[in-house]
Amino acid sequence: PPTPDSGAHLESPMVVRGPGWWERMSERMRAPVSAFSVDLFRIASGLLVLVYFVRLLREYNDYTSEYAFLDHALHRTMFWFSSITLFYPGSPDWYKVGLLLLGLLGSGMLTVGWHPKTGAALAWIVGVSVHRWNFAVINVDDSSITLLLWWILFLPVGHCLAYRTRNWRSEVALCVDGFF
Fold it and tell me: What pTM was estimated for this model as a whole?
């Protein structure tokens, strides 16, 4: 007979436990996903990031240039993490504009599906650098763009709706692995 200290009295042969919430969530996240929906998200994100970099180029003289409203050298001394960037005080305008154009190129690569992960990585690196360089004037859009690009680096993107698409109807039926 079971003793009260053994815990055998707590186990009932009538209770059947199903998978917990974590197992159910993991199973759903591992399930195949429509490549069309993931790449539609890639295109929408790429267009959003493209508009973001166009806006950064338009606001270059206001925030990013050496003679802008911000004292970038002061920010580097006040916030140590703002010195970890591709921008640096005294860098020429062509260098800074070139970096912004590199981010624009990366967002274009992401949008058209030509090496989308490389494009997302380029845009993310430039976006984080701008984020840290203009730290005093960042908004939710700056943080959202960098988080969006970080997420795209881990999504299974680029399987359909790319520049090389010839028969989009057959690509719409493709499935990609889940997120785990």
Answer: 0.79
